[in-house]
Amino acid sequence: xxxxxxxxETTEAVVGAVTGTAAAPRTLLLGRYDDTGRLCxxxxxxxxxxxxxxxxxxxxxxxxxxxxxxxxxWSFSAGWGSSRTLEAVLVKPELVVxxxxxxxxxxxxx
Length: 110
What we know:
Blueprint: E1 8-20, E2 25-33, E3 39-44, H1 50-57, E4 88-90, E5 96-102
Antiparallel strand pairs: 1-2, 1-4, 1-5, 2-3
């Protein structure tokens, strides 16, 4: 007999990039700092509503205004098992958001 248990938690993460544009983000690419101070990519949000995207956009600074982004030159997968990459726009990693997450982890621990 199987029992299905789907815990959900909230956690904080740093916004390091977005899909869409910084003025109208569609999803947020999130990171957390490791013990050495490196911003590690941990995942992305589901699609934002227009209102949520507009609210977040007011708090973002495009990375073109800031040198030395920790994700410069990176590419991000569009999804599990996909070879397609996301068109991501880097933003200054200064906005911390609270997100609801499930506790699933991939092979690399994300």
